[in-house]
Amino acid sequence: MCGIAGFHASPLHPERYRDIAGAMLAQIEHRGPDEAGCFLDDRTAMGTVRLSIIDLASGSQPVGSTDGRYWLCYNGELYNYRELRAELAGRGVSFRTESDTEVVLMAWAHWGRSCLERFNGAFAFALKDTVTGELHLARDRFGKRPLYVARHGDAWLFASEMKAFLAYPGFEFAFDEEHLASTFATWTPLPAQSGYRGVEQLPMGEYLTVRGTETERGRWASLDLTGGEPPATEDEAVDLVRADLEAAVDLRLRSDVEVGVYASGGLDSSILAHLTKERAGLPPRTFSIQFEDAEFDETAEQEELTKHLGTHHSTVRVSDSDVVETFPEAVRHAEVPVFRTAFVPMYLLAQHVRSEGVKVVLSGEGADEAFLGYGIFKDARLLSEWHELDEATRMRRMAQLYPYLRHFSGEDGHRRMLGLYRQFTEETMPGLFSHQMRFQNGRFAVRLLKDAGDPFAAVQRLVAEEPGYAELSAVQKAQWLEFRTLLSGYLLATQGERMALAHGVENRCPFLDPAVVRRAASVNGRFGDPYDEKYLLKRAYGDVLPERIVSKGKFPYRAPDSAAFVRSRPDYRDLLADPGTLGDIGVLDERFVRRFTDRVFDSPPERIGTKENQAFVLLASTVWLHHWYVRGNARRDTPLAVPLYVVDRRSSALPA
Amino acid sequence: MEQELKQYMEEQFMFEFDSEITEDTDLFKAGVLDSFGYISLIGHIEGEYGVKFGEEALLGNVAVTFAGLVESVASARRQTAESK
Lengths: 656, 84
Hints:
The complex is a heterodimer of chains A (656) and B (84).
Chain A: E1 2-8, H1 17-27, E2 35-40, E3 44-50, E4 63-64, E5 70-78, H2 81-90, H3 100-111, E6 121-129, E7 135-139, E8 148-152, E9 155-159, H4 177-186, E10 199-201, E11 206-211, E12 214-219, H5 234-252, E13 259-262, H6 267-280, E14 285-291, H7 299-309, E15 312-318, H8 320-334, H9 343-355, E16 360-362, H10 367-370, H11 375-385, H12 391-401, H13 410-422, H14 436-446, H15 457-464, H16 474-491, H17 493-501, E17 506-508, H18 514-523, H19 535-541, H20 547-551, H21 562-568, H22 572-576, H23 579-585, H24 590-602, H25 610-630, E18 644-648
Parallel strand pairs in A: 2-18, 13-14, 13-16, 14-15, 16-17
Antiparallel strand pairs in A: 1-3, 1-9, 2-3, 4-5, 5-6, 6-7, 7-11, 8-9, 8-10, 11-12
Helix pairs in contact in A: 2-3, 4-14, 5-6, 5-18, 5-19, 8-9, 8-21, 8-25, 9-17, 11-12, 11-16, 12-13, 14-25, 16-17
Chain B: H1 2-13, H2 35-49, H3 55-59, H4 66-83
């Protein structure tokens, strides 16, 4: 794993390129503390900070093709690099290293952009074609690795993390009101959003080519949720799911360093821990979070799993004050507004993993989206069938939806839910039927913003412009939205790789192997009770995992939100409602922010609901983002700790 | 009862009934009510005013405006009285 940063078509004098590229890379050195290198010519400066995982000795970057035409700065892993390398070698391509990076480069040199369709990996890269002068940027199909692009005058800036832009002369961050409104309402930035004006995220599965003053954009991978022909029987489906997951784990155990597993105590990560032991032939090291607050803690399940598998297990114990005290630094790494604090313990976990000498972990992201693990998929199914069901069936379904939420429990809770759900049985937000309840709930946080406009305009545009979206079923649309919002915008990004890479730990997600996602699409809803989440996964691994883990049911990973701040840092009331800060931020509604913070700090925690908690964390993260990015305090002035290797193709460097 | 309920809602959901949010405003669309808030509100009304909303009231699509809530309470009270 690595980080990349650079710029193209800058009006600055090329003499300055090396220092600027070095300073940009220094901002993201946490992503790749092992090596740093950059490529410079008269139009482009781009570099990589490298975390050595594969081919430790000779996998340095930037890497250039043998004819010197193509240069690559690459962040990520290409899991099927050995197969592609063999295929390219069969076509006469020679390689100088054993690294996956060189395979990416030579695949592009050989097949051009269409090489992307052959890639199974987590990646984002910048590739310079020195013959055409083109700069190509591309990102993996699910958005596992980040790539931000900013315009600054005529220049194009790009980087794995936006903080690199702080080192480009004259660049300043300013909040984008439309991005913020959409994020506050829908929980996460949308695929192209960053939260800041003039900064976009290259969406998952897309590329951007800069050619002179022109640009070309497109999508190389779409999200296919319709699935192929389903297996004939449930047993066959179980065998196929097992085979695909084994292959996905095998590919992700390819590494020249040890691979650990994040084991939360939930079903998905337990499957990965089991498979890692089976495939690698010995129990892996496992890592997990324990909470002092019993409401969030899953220690009992973690202990049962790790004892069962005999893994070498270690934990990091997290208290309220750990969450609150680490929050600012975790937000600095998140870079975008956040709606819950659960990413903060992941920052502490990655720190622990790295201190144990492990720099690659498998984690369970994607299982809930691919195999329909979330309550929102059951919501979508129930709401789309609502008018055909009698009241007794509706009541029975209610009990299956969110058994872990207190306010939705018991007969009274289920009866009251009927009235709630009834509000959402018609599509009033075009294309967003499955998510209407969630998004309506998000309207509360939007009240924190001044002049928010229509916070759903952007997400409605997103689905309206998506080819084939209208033909999907209600549950598939819900899946599509989860892949494109919560998964890529938060779980993979803020909670996943941004926290892991803050400490130079690379996360790998076997459930997001393209073959696994395709298989899931072909079996979902075809076998078992569709209101029994992840039915087939439970069938496939029920006999090898502890009963307690398989039968527990979905227990989302969460952490203490506003209550942690109220209990351990009452001074946050003044920090969040400080008139000077709010005036400076500009986009927040000062009157409502003050009223809201008073309410949170003056109420007993049981009176604070989900929407208040989310609004609180969105507010607190926005205040810190203003400090770090808009005011520029995230900038680090210390130079790279490792030497910067430079491939210098500037005119000034050429022999006279 | 109406005044008490208004006061409870204003305090609980941090808004004021005024020219923008009236007794006929859809409180979900206004960002006032969310799932948790709705369930809490129905629980509060049932506990405070001694009524139990049946299917008709809950499914009648009226319980998301203040006026609809008040009408639902009145209707539930009538039914309770009739059944005694």
